[in-house]
Structures are given as structure tokens and as C-alpha cells.
Amino acid sequence: MTGVAERSEGVTLEGLRKRMAEFAKERDWDQFHSPRNLLLALVGEVGELSEIFQWKGEVPRGLPDWKDEEKEHLGEELSDVLLYLVRLSDICGIDLGKAALRKLELNAIKYPVKLCKGSSKKPTQINVTDNNDGKSNGGVMAISNSDSKSRSDGV
After folding, report:
1. Residue 84 shares a structural domain with residue 127
2. What's the whole-model pTM score?
């Protein structure tokens, strides 16, 4: 494994995938890296990430009021989440980069700019009809969401 100084160039998902595989192999941890175990570890790390924000209320972009130590800790927890996600996708045989690009394409279809720009509404909440209070919603057309019973967001 190389040091941090040697990684000053761009980081790729494939590079992280290879490094995580090497890291696990060197430690003989492949035997523990089942999809279930990695998912549970990922969930635990998301919990640790959540704790950082738990009592802070809304936080402005860029975290201008945060101390350097707090930002460093946040970076460590974000990295834990990313690394477990990359490892999980590798173990499951999913090309995470391709899957993410495909998901962006699907979201572009599900949330077309013309209908969704500036709105936080879900596709099932956007329609052409007037509201019950008689006010128009701007003539926004309905979007079908065949997936709405099992999904609540666009990601």
C-alpha cells in the first residue's frame, strides 16, 4: 500500500476498489467480507456520520463555522462510508461507477428539468390540475412513477 503523499493525483472508484481489495487481502479479511457483513458495517458508519450532524441544526454549505478538527473528523467518516460502499459493490460484482451514471440518467428522466426545476416535490406530487384551493400550480404536467410504492426519493 502506498502513502497518502503518493495519491495526490485524482482518485477513481476503480483505484479505490483495487486498494480496498488489496487492503483486505493483505489482512486475510476476505473471509469476513460477505455482502451482509459489509452492508451492516456501512450502516454503522452512516450512523457515525449522522452523529456528527445530530445536534447542529441546519449547517451552511462549506461548514464555515466548523473547526478544522471537526472537518477532518467529518472527512474520516465520509471516507469510511465511501470505502465500505466501494467494497460492498465490488463483492457484489457491481460496477459502482457505471451504476451511478445509469442512476443519474434514470433520475434525469424521472425528474425532467422543465417540470422539476426549483421544486422539491416528488414526481407523484406534480400534476397538471388546479389545486383544491383553486390556485394553478403553473400547468406542470404529471409524471408517472411506477416505482413510487417502494421508493421515496430520486437517489
Report:
1. no
2. 0.75
